[in-house]
Amino acid sequence: MGILDSKIPSGPLAEKWTKHKNEIDLVNPANKRNIDIIVVGTGLAGGSAAASFAELGYNVKTFCYQDSPRRAHSIAAQGGINASKNYQGDGDSDYRLFYDTVKGGDYRSREANVYRLAEVSGNIIDQCVSQGVPFARDYGGLLDNRSFGGVLVSRTFYARGQTGQQLLLGAYSAMNRQIHRGKIKSYTRHEMLDLVIVDGKARGIIARNLITGEIERHSAHAVVIASGGYGNLFFLSTYAMGANVMAAWRTHRRGAFFANPCYTQIHPTCIPVSGEHQSKLTLMSESLRNDGRIWVPKKLDDAKAIREGKLKPTQLKEEDRDYYLERRYPAFGNLVPRDVASRAAKERCDAGYGVNKTGEAVYLDFDAAIMRYGSEKALTSGLKDADDAHIRKLGEEVVEAKYGNLFQMYEKIVDENPYKTPMMIYPAVHYTMGGLWVDYNLQTTIPGCYSAGEANFSDHGANRLGASALMQGLADGYFVLPYTIGDFLADDIRTGPIPTDSEEFDRAEKDVLDKINRLMSAKGVNSVDYYHKKLGKIMWNNCGMSRNEKGLKEAIKEIAALRKDFWENVKVTGVANDKNQELEKAGRVADFLEIGELFAMDALERKESCGGHFREEYQTPEGEALRDDENFKFVSAWEYKGEPKDAKLHKENLIYENIEVKTRSYK
Ligand SMILES: Cc1cc2nc3c(=O)[nH]c(=O)nc-3n(C[C@H](O)[C@H](O)[C@H](O)COP(=O)(O)OP(=O)(O)OC[C@H]3O[C@@H](n4cnc5c(N)ncnc54)[C@H](O)[C@@H]3O)c2cc1C
């Protein structure tokens, strides 16, 4: 266990995946009937993997903590999914998607994995269309595309602002077909609390039935962890409230290395924080940057007047506005990658130009787009004499057709009409690029334990480009794991069912029960949320959009102290052997309190700035991220050794043979 062999196949980049598929072991259809696979998580990654395994003939058990796979966090995805189909004829190709993704990740991802992702991206769209996913179409009936940040082509397929929901309906339908056939047994409202290892291989899980509180043992020949990302350790984020790190973290505690924990994506276009009692942040999709222009006032006095409610943004003349992204990055403008856009917003707000009461907001303005679309509509409708008001009305209709649900959401939350006055936005935690370390087969350092989707670290390097998480999750589930898992399972055709009455299951169950008892018997005074909020503040202040040595060292100390306090002074109400949401939260926060420390350690160790990881000590004179390719062109993979402070760092060196590693410029 624990040797970092990424198993990248030899041969030319574009042939690696085909060659690999031709060479790895297969399990014949009759033998698949004798093999069981557990899939933890039924979002896009887990749902697509489970449906594909079952379609191939394996017996699958799926687990999720929601009451239906339909409610996975994937449902929240708004903007779209990338694929290199080149439907726009604007020069796209597998190579370009590969190139953009590696560059977007600031040259901190594996070439071979990313190329494979680009290679299968077109298949994902075909698969989803045949499932009936209603992607947007252009006037001729063909699939439409829009642009996302960090690229110069239009390759994002979308279903209004609900792409994740529609894709999840597709994956869930595919799952349901298999549930109906008896090939998938779906355990909803079940939470994986531990991984069971037998003879060095992942052979099952311990789960808690969240309705009855019962602890259950489930065995299989392989386990797939597709449990999503851990951004909720910041407390405030755009994630679903329940999103957590438990399944991945407990797998880490059993021996799976955890890669790049400090790589977090801060999304530039979220509705700003409004106060202390908030528990959730809302994303305004990146697709809005196709048409919205980002600005702040040019003069500090105007910004102050706006903050004090004495001036309206619509009263500010064009020449008094600073479209700072267009100014700093003329080639990519408002569509620079998320890390760049987020830091630029912070820079303006830190300099005093913020436009809401807290000074932490910039404008996203649709006025120009409304008038542009309106004029075009008037022309194509033969309305030669349309006045401004009419043109505006027509333009608003076009914008509504494109982004209507997002505008409605904004209005409901902020109580301002974004067609009439610019939206206010500010960066927020949105995605974690770090996750379980996996090799080319998506296998963790524990044989038989795989990881897919946001739970693994695989393809995004130090920054994820928009619309590439859905692509990666579905690539993993529909097109990678169904092949690669067979390579491991081919040795298990004669193993027979894995018993659950073994010592290994006894021990794992005992560990789980001990932890639950410890939580229930702490006679403390503070709620679980009290600790979660405190952790979130430490993370945001010291490990957020920018980090420095002093702050990271403080964070490590503060998190360790907070964790100690948690175990002594937390109060978990209710009982263990019944439905108990406070206990569920306590288990999740206990894990956040561990990964938070590792996160800060990882950020401290990485003495460079790259992608979402911005170390203040390492920046160019213009304030851009300054990488250190000589010393940090590696994946950090942490091995669990007890307390987070004892974790051991392993390095997987990244080799670039097909792409020139350059300064990452979007100018
Ligand atoms: C608001 C928002 C908008 C987004 N928009 C886009 C977009 O437009 N394009 C894009 O590419 N990406 C987008 N993303 C990112 C993308 O949605 C996610 O990265 C992706 O959906 C994650 O999918 P997943 O299957 O890996 O995990 P999830 O969808 O998070 O699913 C996790 C699953 O694991 C289960 N689970 C977790 N822990 C346990 C446990 N211990 N036991 C049992 N089950 C467990 C859950 O029940 C769930 O079924 C967006 C993200 C957000 C927050």
Write up this protein.
The chain has 667 residues and is α+β, with helices and mostly antiparallel strands. Helices cover 39% and strands 14% of the residues. It contains 18 helices and 19 strands. The strands form 5 sheets. The protein has a 5-stranded parallel sheet with strand order 5-2-1-9-17, sandwiched between helices. A 5-stranded antiparallel sheet has the order 11-15-14-12-13. A 4-stranded antiparallel sheet has the order 16-10-18-19. β1, α3 and β2 (59-63) form a beta-alpha-beta unit. α16 packs antiparallel against α17 (581-605). It is globular, with a radius of gyration of 25 Å. The chain starts with 15 loop residues before the first helix and ends in a 14-residue tail after the last strand. The model has no long low-confidence stretch (mean pLDDT 96). Bound molecules: flavin-adenine dinucleotide. Residues 40-46, 63-66, 72-74, 76-81, 163-164, 191-192, 226-229, 238-239, 243-244, 246-247, 283, 430-431, 453-455, 467-470, 473 line the site of flavin-adenine dinucleotide.
How would you sum up this structure in a few lines?
The protein is α+β, with helices and mostly antiparallel strands. It has helices at residues 16-23, 29-32, 44-56, 94-104, 111-131, 163-181, 246-253, 300-307, 324-328, 338-353, 367-380, 388-414, 469-489, 503-521, 528-543, 549-569, 581-605, 629-632; strands at residues 36-40, 59-63, 81-82, 156-157, 184-187, 190-198, 201-209, 215-219, 222-225, 258-259, 264-270, 293-297, 321-322, 362-365, 423-432, 435-436, 449-451, 634-639, 648-653. 54% of the residues are buried.
